[in-house]
Specification:
The chain has a domain at about 10-20 and about 40-95: GroES chaperonin (10 Kd Chaperonin, Protein Cpn10, Chain O), CATH 2.30.33. By secondary structure, the chain is mainly beta. The strands form two sheets. Strands 6-7-1-4-5-8-9 form a seven-stranded antiparallel β-sheet, with no helix packed on it. It has a two-stranded antiparallel sheet with strand order 2-3. The model has no long low-confidence stretch (mean pLDDT about 75). The chain is about 0% helix and about 40% strand. It has strands at about 15-20, 25, 30-35, 45-50, 65, 70-75, 80-85, 90-95, 105. It holds the Pfam family Cpn10. Heptamer of 7 subunits arranged in a ring. Keywords: Chaperone.
């Protein structure tokens, strides 16, 4: 999203945008699997757009893995976002690499 969001997250809340590749998927054989296909419980990746003041392990720009069934959606400036609590995040894929870390932690 261009510019700063007109919203300030509170406490342990995250505002995330679903990854563009969250739609249709391809099997290893190249078959297209529609996003509407039932496949059991599948987690989704999203990019963090805003964080609350009590969020400790996630930063804006990180990619987080979460359960899409446990979500609340909101629209800001015509774009859809998802509200999560930090405890609802299962994993973080970060481009931030500190000394001795791999940059991807689960």
């Amino acid at each position: 999203m261009d510019g700063k969001l007109p919203i300030r997250m509170l406490h342990d809340r995250l505002l995330v945008a679903l990854d563009q590749e969250a739609g249709d998927r391809r099997s290893s054989g190249g078959i297209v699997i529609p996003a509407t296909a039932a496949m059991g419980r599948r987690l989704s990746w999203a990019r963090v757009e805003a964080v609350g003041s009590q969020v400790r392990t996630v930063e804006v720009g990180d990619r987080v893995l979460f359960d899409p069934e446990d979500r609340a959606e909101v629209e800001v400036r015509g774009e859809s976002f998802i509200l999560l609590r930090e405890r609802d995040v299962h994993a973080v894929a970060s481009e931030r690499i500190d000394e001795g870390q791999t940059g991807l932690y689960l």
